[in-house]
């Protein structure tokens, strides 16, 4: 289950980064910032689930 959430959040991160780049290139700076913020949130979810799956030493 953690692997599915991890891969899904990584996929959404890249999708939102792409949408942010498209919005920024179209001149819609404010919505590009919103998409970039959402991508950062999904990246944090990915990082937290990646750390959760690592075995402890």
Rounded mean pLDDT score: 90
Order of helices and strands: HH
Which regions contain 5 or more consecutive residues with pLDDT less than 50? none
Structural class: mainly alpha
Strand content: under 5%
Q: What best-fitting shape do the alpha-carbon axes yield?
A: elongated
Task: Round the Cα radius of gyration to an integer and report it.
Answer: 14 Å
Count of β-strands: 0
Number of domains: 1
SS field, number of helical segments: 2
Main pleated-sheet profile: none
Q: How much helix is in the residues?
A: over 70%
Distance between the termini: 23 Å
Layout of secondary structure:
Layout: H1 2-25, H2 29-53
Helix pairs in contact: 1-2
Explain what this protein looks like in three dimensions.
Helix 1 (2-25) runs antiparallel to helix 2 (29-53). With 57 residues, the protein is an all-alpha fold. The protein is built from 2 helices and no strands. It has one domain (2-53).
